[in-house]
Amino acid sequence: MGKVLIAGAGPTGLTLALWLTAQGIPVRIIDEHGGPGTESRAMVVHARTLELYRQLGLAEGVVAAGHAATRMQFWAEGKPRAALSFGDAGAASTPYPFVLVFPQDRHERLLVQRLDELGVTVERDTALTGFTDTGNHVIAQLRKADGSEESVTTPYLVGCDGARSVVRHRLGTDFEGSTYAHLFYVADVEAKLPGPPGEAQFALDHGDFVAVFPYDDRGLVRLIGTVRDERAGRADSLRFDDIHQDAIRSLGISVSTVNWFSTYHVHHRISSRFRVGRCFLAGDAAHVHSPAGGQGMNTGIADAANLAWKLAAVLHGQAGAGILDSYEAERRAFARQLVDTTDRVFTFITKGGGFAEFVKAHVAPTLLSAASHSDHVRAFMFRLVSQIMVGYQDSPLSQGKVGQVAGGDRLPWVQADGMDNFAPADAIGWQLHVYGNVATDVTAYCSSRGIAVRTFPWTAAHERAGLERDALYLLRPDTYVGLATKDATADTLARYLAALAG
Fold it and tell me: Pfam families, alphabetically (predicted)?
């Protein structure tokens, strides 16, 4: 079979390696750096990511290591203007009804540890210097720390190597978009904060922006904000004391220690292709966008899960190579929408001028305050931010609709009579869910194909979730619905899967 070569050992590459390994696909993961990053801007792990991690047996460890924030406080002109509480808003939608604050550097170390436990070691100080796609495989050139070079043959190459991706540059795909004019900073500090422990804070003051993320109970905090005026032109020499701290002081934050501080520019770009032949792009190599909503790292992790099961299906001979085209079709469409949306939000947040300041100080807080008092609006906002609304209804892999659930939808989460329909199956793979009764020919067919059949006694909770009694919901390995049908026969399943086998 050969090992899938993954270039880049950030969260996207590590998750891809974990998902492939869990499905019996050998991998080789390299990274040009000597170790995991020590400074990180990505802070938030959303509910959908935790659901994907749950299939790897990782979710509970990540939650235990992180800091759950169920409330977000918004400030303007030195006053708390609005608060959004997500705990109850997401309780009916996911096992993880919160925003988890878990810095990327800690996150990466946990993923590396789990990969080590599975017998896969990240090859550090190893750079991808070139590659050739022959049509039947990829031949890649690697340069190691000692300067020696190695030629590697791999069935597939996946570039998870960040915004300056070597893989993307070598493929020659466009990276459409631009760079924001503002300079941003990130600082790891020890501080005393206003409000309840673990509450995330966001402030807007005269064009300044700062986000505050407590990430443990000892007063450790990450600050992310803007550097304005002439100081933005000397990024290399800036220190924390040099930045304009009106927004920080307006929150009543008292910083006692600065552990580290760095500056960076933010881009919003998307690659014109996510797949070229046997080469793929995922995570920041494929798309970068503003930090609005904390979507970047989570989107890369979802890329990895989406691509991993499709590569596994092809390499195990369970699907034709054509299924790999659906990776770009599904993930690029979402990334395009995300880049556009976060760009609009971030442009508004960082915009200066009298009218913009008035809107941020008065209009936006009023709308947020109104939203915080509406259960429906809060629930919608949580589903939107947490990526549990992401779906692939237009994908060539999505078929049918029964009740309110269609092919391409994320399966609705239901916990009823002590049964959690998101509880992981014994192995990552296709699953058939039936809420009610299932015919014996269907179970026999699924058994012959290695598809787990999971039946749940019909309840009113399933009906409220939009599921239909006795219907067949065939779930892809990433737990999105592939096929939803009332025609509950083995022949229906066979026709769908035969089309995938191509």
Answer: FAD_binding_3
CA contacts within 13 A on the Cβ side of 122: 28
pTM of the model: 0.91
214 contacts 193 by C-beta, under 8 angstroms: yes
User: For residue 253, what are the CA distances in angstroms to 77, 185, 191, 214?
Assistant: 15, 17, 7, 12
167 phi, psi to nearest 5 deg: -60, -45
Total domains in the fold of the chain:
1
Residue 223's contacts (CB-CB under 8 Å, 6 or more residues apart) are 185, 186, 187, 189, 210, 211, 212, 213, 248
- d(CA 501, CA 314) in angstroms, rounded, equals 9
Cα 70 from Cα 56, distance rounded (Å): 24
**Is residue 473 a part of any domain in this protein?**
yes
Residues 226, 238: Cα–Cα separation, whole Å? 12
Smallest CA-to-CA distance from 133 within 163, 176, 172, 160 is with 172
Q: Report the C-alpha gap between 201 and 174 in whole angstroms.
A: 36
Q: Exposed/middle/buried for 135, CB within 10 Å: 0-12, 13-18, 19+? A: exposed
Whether 267 and 163 have beta carbons less than 8 Å apart is answered as yes
Tally the residues of the chain. 502
1 CB-side CA count, 13 A: 16
In 118-211, which residue ranges form alpha helices assigned H by DSSP?
166-171
- Residue 261 token pair: 């501080």
pLDDT in tens, 397-451: 999 999 999 999 999 999 998 899 999 988 899 999 999 999 999 999 999 999 9
The residue ranges of the chain whose pLDDT is under 70 are 86-87, 197-198, 204-208, 228-235, 244-247, 291-293, 339, 341-374
Question: What count of Cα atoms within 13 Å lies in the side-chain half-sphere of residue 409?
Answer: 18
Q: What's the one-letter identity of residue 444?
A: A
Residues near 176 by beta carbon (within 8 Å), at least 6 away in sequence? 269, 270, 271, 272
- Domain with residue 423: its CATH number is 3.40.30.120
Radius of gyration of the chain (CA): 23
Domain annotation covers residue 448: yes
DSSP code string of 313-338: HHHTTSS-GGGGHHHHHHHHHHHHHH
Residue 449 lies in a domain: yes
Position 231, amino acid? R
Q: Tokens 């995938």, residue? A: 500
The one-letter amino acid code at 94 reads: T
